[in-house]
Each structure stands twice: as structure tokens, then as C-alpha cells.
Design brief:
There is one protein chain. This protein is α/β, with parallel strands linked by helices and about 300 residues long. It folds into 2 domains: about 110 residues, ATPase, nucleotide binding domain (Nucleotidyltransferase, domain 5), CATH 3.30.420.40; about 170 residues, ATPase, nucleotide binding domain (Nucleotidyltransferase, domain 5), CATH 3.30.420.40. The chain has a 5-stranded mixed β-sheet, with helices on both faces. Strands 8-7-6-9-10 form a 5-stranded mixed β-sheet, sandwiched between helices. Helix 11 packs across helix 13. The two termini are about 35 Å apart.
Length: about 300
């Protein structure tokens, strides 16, 4: 009888928690973290990406129904998982102001008990890295972005322009520099031969990947793995340094008028090449502060602080 009472009490307690669900979404993958506030008891799940700019309401609702909910039910061990969520914050690529209401409506229909907030990935990165303090914030992954954040809102954002016209500092931009250098003489022939051999590629394969296959930006960014494996080669370190210096020159320096000197960054390129990122920052009179691979736990800490 005592065991039965304890189980009923635990079930009731779980259903009265104010559980938070945070999403960090890209076009290919979304990371979700759910928390009831207990230390070291947060649960992380992953689903396919959600981009409301490119996907319809029905496509988004299917992902929520067929991927998000089953995984939440599993990690929370409760078939009523959707109603346990009392707050949802969704930060994502493609979450422009015009499509935020659509994304909010899809989430509200799934999590009917929750207060829902939808914002772009840059604001999510700013909240994750800076919380409620001001600073310069960067995203440096496949693509790049940056802003000056005043602790509440994004005050200024230099447009990244995408990997064809901009995205300096990103993996895609690094890939462009790397491939150009391999075939136009900027890099030693030995590096070109090593890359083609390790990746089992030919010149024709590379042209096909960039100009004929979809998602050329992801292929270009994938070269960062090779560069990281052979980062002891001075020519590759110089290439990464050049990429970051272009990023600071054309993006970060535009925020100097706000008086901020600390620069924080989210993303695999900043994370894996942190020492070079720090050197590039110092060259332009800035200081690298926080550098994280993923913003998800910083986002959660921000929302917990607002509930306190």
C-alpha cells in the first residue's frame, strides 16, 4: 500500500511541474531540451530540422506529432508528456518575423498547456551566450551571422548575405578558400593530393558537388573536417586565420561603435578552431569570451533565470 501511494504521489508531482521545452533548430536537425528544473535531470532529444520559412504547417505538424512527441513520451516516461510542458521556446533558422506566428500556432496546437515563444537563431545564440548582458554575438557554423545584443534585443545585425555573397568566417566560406587554394596554386600540391586521396574525390567530383548537386554550402563546410585533422600544416592554419580575419573585418568591426570588446560565438567552426578565432579577435582589438559548440544549454539557463 505504501509503495502504491508513493507511485501515485510521484505521478501527481510530475504532472504539476512547470516543465520547459527549448528548441535549437536548423534546416537539417533540431535539438530539444526538456527540463523540470532539477539539477542534472534535463533530457535532450533530436529530430529532423524544422524551418517554417520553407515548410508548410502540415509538414511541421507531422514532425511534431511523429518525432517530437514520441521522443518526449519516451524520455519523460509519460504518455501525457505534451500536457506536462508549460513553456516552449523555439529558436530556429528561418524564423523571420513574418513566419513566427505560423510556427507559434503549430507548437500551440501540440503543446496546448504551454506558453509559446518563437524567435530566430541569432537571438537564441545571444541569450545563450550573454543572458541579460550586452555583447557581440556570432554564429560560426556552416554559415555565419553576427549582431550586437543589448541584453534584451538585437540592436544591430550586419547582413551575412549567405555563402555566395558573404558568410565570412563560416565553414562554407572556409571551404571556398580551401578549394580555390587547392586548384589555383595558393596551397601546396601535396595538400591537394592528400585531400583528394583521403576523401576519395576527383576534381570533377568537387565541381559536381558545388555546381550540380543541392546544398553546396554543406559540401563546402565539410572540408573543415579535413582541415581540422591536418591543422598542424601551417598553410591550413593560415587559411583558417584568413577566414576569421575577413569575418572580423567585414562584420564584427561594424559593432565597435557600441564600445563592446568581448565577442562570444556559437558553432562548430568557432569551437574547433577556437585558438585561431581568439588570435583573429585580438588582431582587431577584441577579446574572445564564451565559445560554445551548441547553444541549447545556455538557452535553457536563460529561461530558467527568467522564471526565478
Amino acid at each position: 500500500m505504501k509503495v502504491f501511494y508513493f507511485e501515485v504521489f510521484c505521478t501527481f508531482a510530475s504532472k504539476t511541474k512547470r516543465m520547459i521545452l527549448i528548441a535549437d533548430s536548423g534546416s537539417t536537425k533540431t535539438d530539444w531540451i526538456v527540463s523540470g528544473g532539477e539539477a542534472n535531470n534535463d533530457k535532450v532529444i533530436s529530430t529532423q530540422g524544422i524551418n517554417p520559412f520553407h515548410q508548410s504547417d502540415s509538414e511541421i505538424e507531422l514532425i511534431l506529432k511523429n518525432e517530437v512527441l514520441p521522443r518526449l513520451i519516451s524520455v519523460l516516461a509519460d504518455t501525457d508528456a505534451a500536457n506536462l510542458i508549460k513553456s516552449v521556446a523555439f529558436y530556429g533558422a528561418g524564423c523571420t518575423e513574418s513566419v513566427q506566428p505560423k510556427m507559434k500556432n503549430c507548437l500551440s496546437e501540440t503543446f496546448v498547456e504551454a506558453k509559446v515563444e518563437v524567435a530566430g537563431d541569432l537571438l537564441g545564440a545571444a541569450r545563450a551566450l550573454c543572458g541579460s548582458t550586452s555583447g557581440i554575438v556570432c554564429i560560426l557554423g556552416t554559415g555565419s551571422n553576427s549582431c550586437f545584443y543589448d541584453g534584451k534585443t538585437i540592436v544591430k545585425n550586419v547582413p551575412p548575405l549567405g555563402y555566395i555573397l558573404g558568410d565570412e568566417g563560416s565553414g562554407a566560406a572556409l571551404g571556398k578558400l580551401f578549394i580555390n587554394g587547392m586548384f589555383k596554386g595558393g596551397l601546396p600540391e601535396a595538400i591537394r593530393e592528400l585531400y583528394l586521396r583521403e576523401e576519395n574525390l576527383t576534381y570533377q567530383d568537387i565541381i559536381e558537388n558545388v555546381y550540380r548537386k543541392p546544398l553546396a554550402n554543406r559540401y563546402l563546410a565539410s572540408t573543415a573536417k579535413f582541415i581540422n585533422r591536418h591543422f598542424d600544416l601551417p598553410e591550413l592554419e593560415a587559411l583558417v586565420r584568413q577566414n576569421f580575419e575577413l569575418f572580423f573585418e567585414r562584420n564584427v568591426c561594424e559593432y565597435a561603435s557600441y564600445g563592446a570588446k568581448n565577442v562570444s560565438a556559437i558553432g562548430s567552426i568557432a569551437y574547433h578552431f577556437r585558438s585561431t578565432f581568439e588570435k583573429a579577435a585580438a588582431k582587431f582589438g577584441f577579446e574572445a569570451d564564451r565559445v560554445e559548440q551548441s547553444p541549447i544549454r545556455g538557452m535553457l539557463a536563460y529561461h530558467h533565470s527568467k522564471q526565478a
